[in-house]
Design goal:
By secondary structure, the protein is of the alpha/beta class. 42% of the residues lie in helices and 18% in strands. The chain is built from 31 helices and 26 strands. The strands form 6 sheets. The protein has a 6-stranded mixed sheet with strand order 1-11-10-9-12-13, sandwiched between helices. A 6-stranded mixed sheet has the order 14-24-23-22-25-26, with helices on both faces. α12 packs across α14, α20 crosses α21 and α23 crosses α25. The longest helix is centred in the middle third of the chain and has 37 residues. The chain starts with 28 loop residues before the first helix and ends with a helix. The structure holds 6-O-phosphono-beta-D-glucopyranose and alpha-D-glucopyranose (2 copies). The site of one alpha-D-glucopyranose has 19 residues, from α22 and β23. One alpha-D-glucopyranose binds next to α6 and β10. Pfam families: Hexokinase_1, Hexokinase_2. This is Hexokinase-3. It catalyses: D-glucose + ATP = D-glucose 6-phosphate + ADP + H(+); D-fructose + ATP = D-fructose 6-phosphate + ADP + H(+); a D-hexose + ATP = a D-hexose 6-phosphate + ADP + H(+).
Length: 924
C-alpha cells in the first residue's frame, strides 16, 4: 500500500527504499508521536456514545426497521436454546472464515456427559489467495477436497457422516441448514456466492468430490459455535464474542422481540454482526486518518468500518500504517522505510501481539522490525510498542463498548435490574494478544457496572459448539423424517381419491338396487324441494348434532322466521334407555311451548333426526342403528315417530302432531333449497358426516313409481364398513375405531367428521411422543385422556391468522408443555388429518354429482350443495379443499356450495310445510 500519511498533502513520497536524507527533520518528534498516539485515544464519553448508538441500532434492527446507514444486522440463527450438555455423537466440523486464510476440519466427539470431554482431532489447511478471490465453486471444491483429505488421513468412522458448517460471514438463515450469504467480509471475495445458499454450495461440492457421503446438517456463525461450546457453568452462557480476523457477537434474545420471526415464544440466538456498525455520528470522532486509509485500500471499502478497528486482520495493518507515517515524519527508524514496511499485510496480528508481550522483551521487537528490513534503535523499539499498545487498546475498548451494548440489550429484554452472565470468548486476538482480554474486561466494568460478567474462553475454538448445534439439527432432521413417515398415509394422491370416488359410485348403485352395500341409500319420501308457496307455523325438533334444539318456524309471505332454544342431552341420557331419551325430548318441547306461549296448540311438527332410518313414509322412520356416540337402548329397529308419540302420550298434557321425520342432510338441502332451486344435494360435515341428493325415482328399488325424483339419504358415514376402504385406513384409524362405541361401523365418517378427527390427532401425537419426536419423548398424562383433543382445536390451530405462538398457547392451555418445534409438528399433524378428511369428503361429493349428471344424461351438470356442520363451517380450509377436490374429480360438474345458516330445523319445518300443503291439496 502506498500510504500517503494521516495529515495528507505528501502524495508521491516514499517510494520503497528511497533514501530519506532529503526529508526535513521534525522540530519535535515527541510531539508528533504524541499527536499520532492521541488519535487512537477514545474517551469514556465517546465509548458511552458508541455503546448507546449501537444499542439503538440493535433495537432498530430487531424491530425490522431498515436504517439508512449500514448498521448492525441482528440475524436470527435458528438456535433456540443453550445446550443442555446431553448432546452426543461424532460430528465432522468444517470452519470457514474464522481463521482468515485458513480452513479447519475437526472431528468432534460429544459424550453426552457434562464435563467429560474428548479431545477433537483437527487439521488446518491454508486457502490459497487466488481461491479466496476466485470463483465460488473453486472455494467450495477446495473445502470438499480438504474434508476428503482429512477423512483419508484420520482413522474415523465413515458411516453416516454428519457435518456442521461454521461459516463466519453475515448470512440470512432460513433454517438450521439454510443460509444465504449477504456479503463477504474479511478478505474473502469469491464470485457467485453472495445471495446463494452456502449449505447447498457445500453439498454440491461434496457431491462433485464424490469420495465420501457427508450430510451437511447445520450451518452456524463462529460466535454461535463459541457460545454453544461453552461448558455449562454456574451462570448461563448467553453471549458469544469473537475477535478473530473479524469481530462479532451473538446472544440469546427473547423471540418475541425479533420482528423477523413468526415465533415469539422462548429465545433465539441472534448474531449481531456488529462489524458493519458504521454510524458516522458515533464512529466519526474516533476514526483516524489511518482507519480511512485502511478502509480505502481494503477489498470492501465503506463496509465493516467497526470491524476494521477491532478485527485481527486489521490491527497489524493499522500499526503498519502508523509506523510508515512516523518513519516518513522522521520520528522512527531515522526517517527510513523499507520495501517490506511499505507493503500491505507485512505486519500481522501475531507480530503486534509479540511486540506488546512484556515477556518477549524488546529484543523480540527488534527482531521483528529487522525482519521487515528496518534498523531500529532502542527508542524505536519502545515507540513501536507504544503504537501497538495504542491500536490494540482502542480495539479492546471499542469491543468493550459493543459488548456493553449487548449486555444492556440482554438486561432490557430480560427486564432484570442486575444481570449475571457468562460470555464465551474466542478468536485469535483473545488467544494471542497479552492484554486484550484484560482491557476489555476493565472497560466493560466501567461501561456496564450493573452487569456481573464472567469471561469464559471457548472450547476447541468453537468446534465443540458447532458440533452441539449439529447434534441438535441432526436430531431435528431425524424427527422430521419420522413425522413424514407417520403422516405419509394421510396424504392421498389423485389416484387414491379417484379410486374412492369409483368405489362410492359402485356402492351407491348397489345400495339403490337393494343389494348388499355399505351405502344404504335410504329413500326419504321427500320428492320435491319447496316451491315458495308454503305457509304456516310449525314446530321442529333437531336431534343428533352438537346441539339439541326445539324451534318454532313461521313460514310467511315475507320469508321464514325462526325462534329456537338449545337444550342439552346429557351423555347419560344419550346412552341410557330409549324411554328416558324420548321423555327428555318431550320435556324440552313442553318447556319451549310454555316459554313461547304455545301451550295447548297442536302445531304440525317436523323432526330432524340425524341417524340412519329406514322410512316407509314421511312420518315413519325405523332407526337402523345409532351413530355418533348415541346408544340409547330399545330404540334400534323401532319407529322413532312412534317412540316420540309414546313419550307424548306418557306426558299426557301435550298434544303434538308429528308430520315428518327428516335426516339433517335432507333438512339442510331443503333449507338451502328454499333460497336456491338448484340445491339438490345436502351435505353435513359436523359431529358426523353424511349426504343426500335427488335421485331418479326409477333407480330406487322398493319405492313405487317410475317418474320424478326422490331424495336419498346415502348414510355415507358407513361407507367402507364392508372393508372396501381398508387400503386407506391407518393404524390410528383402526385404534380410534376400536375404542369407539361402534367398532367396525361408520368407517368413512370416522376418517372425516368432527367427532373423530381430534381423536386421530391425539393418537398420532401419542405415537410421535413414543418415538421421541414430540415433547422430548416424555409421555404427558393429559394426552392419555380420550377425546381431550377436540376437533375445534384443529380449526383453531390451523387458522391462518394465528402465529405459531398462538398455536402453542392453545396447546399449553390443554396442558401440553411444548417447544416451538413441537408446536410446528402438531400443526402439521392437524393439517394432514384435516386435509385427508376434506379430500375424502370431496371425493364423495364428486361421486354424487357425477351420478346425477349421468342420471340426467347431461354434458355438464350445474348443481348446488347445501352444507352444514361445525367442522365444515369453523375449519379455515376444509370448505375450499372440498371444493377443489370436487373440481379435480368431477370436472364436468359445476358445483356450488351454499352454507346453511338456519340449521336443519328450518328444513324439517319446510318438509312438514310441503307435506301439509300437499295434504290440503288432496283434501280440496
Ligand atoms: C345442523 C343441524 O344443520 O347441522 C344438526 O341442525 C346437524 O341437526 C348439524 O346434525 C351438523 O352439525 P354438527 O356439527 O352440530 O354435528
Ligand atoms: C465477520 C463476519 C461475522 C463473524 C466475524 C468473526 O464480522 O461477518 O459473521 O462472526 O467476522 O469471525
Ligand atoms: C351420522 C348419521 C347421519 C347423519 C350424519 C350427520 O352419520 O348416521 O344420519 O346425517 O351423522 O349428522
Amino acid at each position: 500500500m502506498d500510504f500517503t500519511g494521516p495529515v495528507g498533502g505528501q502524495q508521491g513520497e516514499g517510494t520503497p527504499g528511497r533514501p530519506q536524507e532529503g526529508l526535513p527533520q521534525p522540530p519535535d518528534s515527541s510531539a508528533l508521536m504524541q499527536e499520532c498516539l492521541q488519535q487512537f485515544r477514545v474517551t469514556g464519553a465517546q465509548l458511552q456514545k458508541i455503546q448507546a448508538s449501537l444499542l439503538a441500532s440493535m433495537e432498530q434492527a430487531l424491530r425490522g426497521q431498515a436504517s439508512p446507514a449500514p448498521a448492525v444486522r441482528m440475524l436470527p440463527t435458528y438456535v433456540g436454546s443453550i445446550p443442555h450438555g446431553t448432546e452426543q455423537g461424532d460430528f465432522l466440523v468444517l470452519e470457514l472464515g474464522a481463521k482468515g486464510a485458513s480452513l479447519r476440519v475437526l472431528w468432534v466427539t460429544l459424550t453426552g456427559i457434562n464435563g467429560h470431554r474428548v479431545e477433537p482431532r483437527s487439521q488446518e489447511f491454508v486457502i490459497p489467495q487466488e481461491v479466496m478471490l476466485g470463483a465460488g465453486q473453486q472455494l467450495f471444491d477446495f473445502a470438499a477436497h480438504c474434508l476428503a483429505e482429512f477423512l483419508d488421513g484420520h482413522p474415523v468412522s465413515r458411516q453416516a457422516l454428519q457435518l456442521g458448517f461454521s461459516f463466519s460471514f453475515p448470512c440470512h438463515q432460513t433454517g438450521l441448514d439454510r443460509s444465504t450469504l449477504i456479503s463477504w467480509t474479511k478478505g474473502f471475495r469469491c464470485s457467485g456466492v453472495e445471495g446463494q445458499d452456502v449449505v447447498q454450495l457445500l453439498r454440491d461440492a461434496i457431491r462433485r468430490q464424490g469420495a465420501h457421503s457427508i450430510d451437511v446438517v447445520a450451518v452456524v456463525n463462529d460466535t454461535v459455535g463459541t457460545m454453544m461450546g461453552c461448558e455449562p457453568g454456574l451462570r448461563p452462557c448467553e453471549v458469544g464474542l469473537v475477535v478473530d480476523t473479524g469481530t462479532n457477537a451473538c446472544y440469546m434474545e427473547e423471540a418475541r422481540h425479533v420482528a423477523a420471526l413468526d415465533n415469539d415464544r422462548g429465545r433465539v440466538c441472534v448474531s449481531v454482526e456488529w462489524g458493519s456498525f458504521g454510524d458516522s455520528g458515533a464512529l466519526g470522532p474516533v476514526l483516524t486518518t489511518f482507519d480511512h486509509s485502511l478502509d480505502h485500500e481494503s477489498l470492501n471499502p465503506g463496509a465493516q468500518r467497526f470491524e476494521k478497528m477491532i478485527g485481527g486482520l486489521y490491527l497489524g495493518e493499522l500499526v503498519r500504517l502508523v509506523l510508515v507515517h512516523l518513519a516518513r515524519r522522521g520520528v522512527l527508524f531515522g526517517g527510513r522505510t523499507s520495501p517490506a514496511l511499505l507493503s500491505r499485510g507485512s505486519i500481522l496480528l501475531e507480530h503486534v501481539a509479540e511486540m506488546e508481550d512484556p515477556s518477549a522483551g524488546v529484543a523480540r521487537v527488534h527482531a521483528i522490525l529487522q525482519d521487515l528490513g528496518l534498523s531500529p534503535d532502542t527508542s524505536d523499539a519502545e515507540l513501536v510498542q507504544l503504537v501497538c499498545a495504542a491500536v490494540c487498546t482502542r480495539a479492546a475498548q471499542l469491543c468493550a463498548a459493543a459488548l456493553a451494548s449487548v449486555l444492556a440489550r440482554l438486561q432490557r429484554s430480560r427486564e432484570h435490574q442486575a444481570l449475571q452472565v457468562a460470555v464465551a470468548t474466542g478468536g485469535q486476538v483473545f488467544e494471542q494478544h497479552p492484554r486484550f482480554c484484560r482491557i476489555l474486561r476493565e472497560t466493560v466494568m466501567l461501561l456496564a457496572p450493573e452487569c456481573d460478567v464472567s469471561f469464559v474462553p471457548s472450547v476447541d475454538g468453537g468446534g465443540r459448539g458447532v458440533a452441539m448445534v449439529t447434534a441438535v439439527a441432526a436430531r431435528l432432521a431425524s424427527h422430521r423424517r419420522l413425522l413424514e413417515e407417520t403422516l405419509a398415509p394421510f396424504r392421498l394422491s389423485h389416484e387414491q381419491l379417484a379410486a374412492v370416488q369409483a368405489l362410492m359410485r359402485e356402492a351407491m348403485a348397489k345400495g339403490l338396487r337393494g343389494e348388499a352395500s355399505s351405502l344404504r341409500m335410504l329413500p326419504t319420501y321427500v320428492r320435491a324441494t319447496p316451491d315458495g308457496s308454503e305457509r304456516g307455523d310449525f314446530l321442529a325438533l333437531d336431534l343428533g348434532g352438537t346441539n339439541f334444539r326445539v324451534l318454532l318456524v313461521r313460514v310467511a309471505t315475507g320469508g321464514v322466521q325462526i325462534t329456537s332454544q338449545v337444550y342439552s342431552i346429557p351423555e347419560c341420557v344419550a346412552q341410557g334407555s330409549g324411554q328416558q331419551l324420548f321423555d327428555h325430548i318431550v320435556d324440552c318441547i313442553v318447556d319451549f311451548q310454555q316459554k313461547q306461549g304455545l301451550s295447548g296448540q297442536s302445531l304440525p311438527l317436523g323432526f330432524t333426526f340425524s341417524f340412519p332410518c329406514r322410512q316407509l313414509g314421511l312420518d315413519q322412520g325405523i332407526l337402523l342403528n345409532w351413530t355418533k356416540g348415541f346408544n340409547a337402548s330399545g330404540c334400534e329397529g323401532q319407529d322413532v315417530v312412534c317412540l316420540l308419540r309414546g313419550a307424548i302420550r306418557r306426558r299426557q298434557a301435550v298434544e303434538l302432531n308429528v308430520v315428518a321425520i327428516v335426516n339433517d342432510t335432507v333438512g339442510t338441502m331443503m333449507s338451502c333449497g328454499y333460497e336456491d332451486p338448484r340445491c339438490e344435494i345436502g351435505l353435513i360435515v359436523g359431529t358426523g358426516t353424511n349426504a343426500c341428493y335427488m335421485e331418479e325415482l326409477r333407480n330406487v328399488a322398493g319405492v313405487a313409481g317410475d317418474s320424478g325424483h326422490m331424495c336419498i339419504n346415502m348414510e355415507w358415514g358407513a361407507f367402507g364398513d364392508d372393508g372396501s376402504l381398508d387400503m386407506l385406513s391407518t393404524c390410528f384409524d383402526a385404534s380410534v375405531d376400536q375404542a369407539s362405541i361402534n367398532p367396525g361401523k361408520q368407517r368413512f365418517e370416522k376418517m372425516i367428521s368432527g367427532m373423530y378427527l381430534g381423536e386421530i390427532v391425539r393418537r398420532i401425537l401419542l405415537h410421535l411422543t413414543s418415538l421421541g419426536v414430540l415433547f422430548r419423548g416424555q409421555q404427558i398424562q393429559r394426552l392419555q385422556t380420550r377425546d381431550i383433543f377436540k376437533t375445534k382445536f384443529l380449526s383453531e390451530i390451523e387458522s391462518d391468522s394465528l402465529a405459531l405462538r398462538q398455536v402453542r398457547a392453545i396447546l399449553e392451555d390443554l396442558g401440553l408443555p411444548l417447544t416451538s418445534d413441537d408446536a410446528l409438528m402438531v400443526l402439521e399433524v392437524c393439517q394432514a388429518v384435516s386435509q385427508r378428511a376434506a379430500r375424502l369428503c370431496g371425493a364423495g361429493v364428486a361421486a354424487v354429482a357425477e351420478k346425477m349428471r349421468e342420471n340426467r344424461g347431461l354434458e355438464e351438470l350445474t348443481v348446488s350443495v347445501g352444507v352444514d356442520g361445525t367442522l365444515y363451517k369453523l375449519h379455515p380450509h376444509f370448505s375450499s379443499l372440498v371444493a377443489a377436490t370436487v373440481r379435480e374429480l368431477a370436472p364436468r360438474c359445476v358445483v356450488t356450495f351454499l352454507q346453511s345458516e338456519d340449521g336443519s330445523g328450518k328444513g324439517a319445518a319446510l318438509v312438514t310445510a310441503v307435506a301439509c300443503r300437499l295434504a290440503q291439496k288432496t283434501r280440496v
